[in-house]
Each structure stands twice: as structure tokens, then as C-alpha cells.
From TrEMBL:
BP-aspect Gene Ontology terms: carbohydrate catabolic process
Descriptive protein name: 6-phospho-beta-glucosidase
Keywords assigned by UniProt, alphabetized: Glycosidase, Hydrolase
InterPro entries noted in UniProt: GH, GH_1_N_CS, Glyco_hydro_1
Pfam families: Glyco_hydro_1 (PF00232)
GO CC term, one of those recorded: cytosol
Length: 479
């Protein structure tokens, strides 16, 4: 029977805006995430148009990878990481996104990070844009709604592709590019984090604006793929989708059709463009029914065909049910909630835990596209208790990962070409959805709290040594 391939990329995942800190060091400019306040499970975070004195902005320090990168990468190496998924902070390279020349200090920082990874044999997996759009582009163009952002993004890509062409092989153009299509009206977790359409500008949020912005991101991604391959033919450049796995709540055919619609709108719409190189057939009806009229320039559709990705990556945390029954009980999730599944348990934040859903999802994606896949986000946000002796006994996290890895192996046995696995928040960082530290994901505990206090010291959780055994055995030892 098939099992994980010998070169399987075990590792972990982070994002600069949730982890890096040093938000204004060495000339770095403000990103969209730098304008997001803290929040909690019950109190939503806010987006401000200026930094408010006395208000906590979690990304400003986060868990300070900027000053702890050597220590953290050494811990990743101790776990046996084969890859480390991270993002580059666009505004550390181009503070407003519109400069002609990049900041050397920012470029040098990432040189140092990549060198540290490579010293331990860790392959960097770099997300080019992970909710870190320069805030100045939002102010001037409403972010990606303005076509001007395409060229600014490509200037950024050309800079980092050339600078790191001998250090980074694996790239992702946009994190969860489909985020802006979801939960319309919930701008904090959708349009705003991608950098358009919402309360951070005076431009009203609209479906038209979101899908126009998305088209510009598709064009930018395709052009970046083509450029990257020209700069280094060994580059592997992928897409990244926030996969929303949906089940029908009942066997009513209406619910089944509603699931099909949900899967199309939230998942396939974006990945069909990036993998197949064209808008799906169902897009035209969607545009018509939602009064969307995309403005395309001559050559855009040809660009999409020429810039298809090499591999498909996605985040998977949970599944939801779908029904047209307005009385069905609702639950929460990553970017998008849904109807509660009576067969599943949920996390402290209401995200339904569904390992078998990952098996199903891998088969669905691979069956549709037949290109290599990678699970680049998966994990359990939980309240961790730091014991008096400095330990964290997170058996609940170990159980979560064990069950999901088992299902990944089942998908591999089914014939899925799975490249790797990078659990989310391999070290504690700020939650993107709520802006809090209490919702922890990592194998490594960071002494940092919701009020901004903490000495930022690092401690291994129980899951640290467990994941180390998983990697050293290539997924065979899950005890």
C-alpha cells in the first residue's frame, strides 16, 4: 500500500503579520494587518484608519520572530522540519508598495532567515502575499480593486524572485485567495484582510468590488508564475485556497444542490482559474445573478492560461453543513461558518473537528485537478494551560493531528499525490480571525498574552516531541 513519499515535506506554517512583529523597524511601512486591533471570541477586532493611542495592535509585536528567528528555526530543526512555510512582509521590502527601490534592510532580514533555514536543511516555502497588503495601496486605490496593484505586486515579486532565486524554490502567490468571496459583509475576515472593500476606506463593500479585485489578483498571480519560471525554471509556484468542505444537512435534493453551489462559489471558482487557467463555466451565471460586470483588459484571459500554478495548496480546519432550512443551528469556522453537524465535536471556538473530511477533501481536489497537493494549514486553536513546571500537556492537539495525519495517509493510499504537510501556527502566534493570543495553535508555547504582556520566552509543549517522532518516522509513528 502507498504511504507518504520519502521526500514528503513535513513542517509548519506561519504568517509574518501574525508572527514577525517589529512592525515599524528599519523603515517598514504599515500593512492592512497593522491597522487591525486586538479582539476576542466575543468582541470583534476593529480596523482603524490611523493608529489609535492606547489601543493594542497585535501584529506590531506579535510573537517577535524578527528578533527570535535563530532560536525559533533551531527549534523547528530540532523537530525535524523538512520545510518551513512563512510569508514575506511586503511592507518590509516596499513600505508603501509604490517605491521604485526596495529597502535593503528588509531584504537582508529575509536573507538571514533563509540562510538560517538552509543551514539546517529546511526548505523555505514562501507565501508572497499573506494578508499583508501595504496600507498605502488601500488608501490610494482601495487595494486590489485598483488595477494599479497588479504592477506594484509584480515589482515586489521581481525583486524577491531575483534576490532569493538560489535560496527559495517553493512559492505561493496569495494566501487564501478565495477569502474575499466568502461571508459577504463580514469584512474583517474577508475583503479587508485581502486589502479592499470595507470600513478601512470610504468605499462601500460590494460584491462587484470584491470580484473585480479578485480578477486583478488572478492576473497578478498568473503573471507572477510566468515571471518566476523565467527567472528560475526550478521554481515551483502554487496557489493557496481556504478550502470550505461542505456536506448536505439532509438528503433533500435541494440541500445537495446547495452544497454543490457552495463548493463552486467558495472553492472551485478561484482554483479553476489558477489551476486550469480559465474561469469555470458556472461563473457566467454567478456574475449575472449577482450583477457583477468584470472589467478585463485585452490579453487578461490569455495571461490566465499562461500562468497556471505548479501545485495546489490549501488550508483545512473543519467542515460545515449546508441547508436552505433557516431554522438549522449555526456554528463557526475559518472565514466562514455554517450549519452544525450533529456527528462532529467542535473546538473551543466552535470549529467542527472532522479528520475524515480531510480525506474526502484531498480526493475531491485531486480528482478535479490531478496535480500535486499540499496541506499548508491545519490545526487546533485551543486554550493551553502553562503548568508550574513550564510544561503544556496538549494531548487534545496531539489527538487532532494524529487523526488528520491518518486520514491524509488514507488519501495517499487512494492515489492522491500529496507533497507535504505544514500544520498552522507551529509556534504560538496571533489569531487572524480574532486578534487574540489565547487561541493557541503551536507546538511551541510563547509567553505572550492578550493584554500585550509576556517575556516572549519559548517553551516546548508535549506536542513538540510527539511531532518530532512523527517526522522522524515519516508518519509511521503516531503514538
Amino acid at each position: 500500500m502507498k504511504t507518504f513519499r520519502e521526500d514528503f515535506l513535513w513542517g509548519g506554517a506561519t504568517a509574518a503579520n501574525q508572527y514577525e512583529g517589529a512592525w515599524d523597524v528599519d523603515g517598514k511601512g504599515a500593512s492592512v494587518s497593522d491597522m487591525c486591533t486586538n479582539g476576542s471570541h466575543t468582541v470583534p477586532k476593529r480596523v482603524t484608519t490611523a493608529i489609535e493611542e492606547g489601543t493594542l495592535y497585535p501584529s506590531h509585536e506579535a510573537t517577535d520572530f524578527y528578533h527570535h528567528y535563530k532560536e525559533d528555526i533551531a527549534l523547528f530543526a530540532e523537530m525535524g522540519f523538512k520545510t518551513f512555510r512563512m510569508s514575506i512582509n511586503w511592507t518590509r521590502i516596499f513600505p508603501t508598495g509604490m517605491e521604485e527601490k526596495p529597502l535593503e534592510a528588509g531584504l537582508q532580514f529575509y536573507d538571514n532567515v533563509f540562510d538560517e533555514c538552509l543551514k539546517y536543511g529546511i526548505e523555505p516555502l514562501v507565501t508572497i502575499s499573506h494578508y499583508e497588503l501595504p496600507y498605502a495601496l488601500v488608501e490610494k486605490y482601495n487595494g486590489w480593486e485598483g488595477r494599479e496593484c497588479i504592477q506594484y505586486y509584480l515589482n515586489y515579486c521581481e525583486t524577491i524572485f531575483n534576490r532569493y532565486k538560489n535560496k527559495v524554490k517553493y512559492w505561493l502567490t496569495f494566501n487564501e485567495i478565495n477569502a474575499g468571496t466568502m461571508a459577504f459583509g463580514n469584512v474583517l475576515s474577508t475583503g479587508t484582510i485581502q486589502g479592499y472593500s470595507g470600513p478601512i476606506t470610504e468605499v462601500p463593500d460590494s460584491v462587484q468590488a470584491r470580484y473585480q479585485a479578485l480578477h486583478h489578483m488572478f492576473v497578478a498571480s498568473a503573471k507572477a508564475v510566468k515571471m518566476g519560471h523565467e527567472i528560475n525554471s526550478d521554481f515551483k509556484i502554487g496557489c493557496m485556497i481556504a478550502f470550505m468542505t461542505s456536506y448536505p444537512y439532509t438528503c433533500n435534493p435541494t440541500d445537495m444542490l446547495e452544497v454543490q453551489r457552495a463548493m463552486r462559489d467558495s472553492n472551485w471558482y478561484c482554483s479553476d482559474v489558477q489551476v486550469r487557467g480559465a474561469y469555470p463555466a458556472f461563473a457566467e451565471r454567478f456574475w449575472e445573478e449577482n450583477n457583477i460586470s468584470l472589467k478585463m483588459e485585452d490579453g487578461d484571459l490569455e495571461v490566465l492560461k499562461e500562468g497556471t500554478v505548479d501545485y495546489y495548496t490549501f488550508s483545512y480546519y473543519m467542515s460545515n453543513c449546508v441547508t436552505l432550512d433557516p431554522g438549522a443551528e449555526q456554528t463557526e469556522g475559518n472565514l466562514l461558518g455554517g450549519v452544525k453537524n450533529p456527528y462532529l465535536k467542535a473546538s473551543d471556538w466552535g470549529w467542527q473537528i472532522d479528520p475524515q473530511g480531510l480525506h474526502y477533501t484531498l480526493n475531491e481536489i485531486y480528482g478535479r485537478y490531478n496535480i500535486p497537493l499540499m496541506v499548508v494549514e491545519n490545526g487546533l486553536g485551543a486554550v493551553d494551560k502553562l503548568e508550574e513546571d513550564g510544561t503544556v500537556n496538549d494531548d487534545y492537539r496531539i489527538n487532532y493531528f494524529r487523526d488528520h495525519i491518518k486520514e491524509m495517509e488514507e488519501a495517499v493510499k487512494d492515489g492522491v499525490d500529496l507533497m507535504g504537510y505544514t500544520p498552522w501556527g507551529c509556534i504560538d502566534l496571533v489569531s487572524a480571525s480574532t486578534g487574540e493570543m489565547a487561541k493557541r495553535y503551536g507546538f511551541i508555547y510563547v509567553d505572550k498574552y492578550d493584554d500585550g504582556t509576556g517575556d516572549l520566552s519559548r517553551r516546548k509543549k508535549k506536542s513538540f516531541d510527539w511531532y518530532k517522532k512523527v517526522i522522524s518516522s515519516n508518519g509511521k509513528n503516531l503514538n
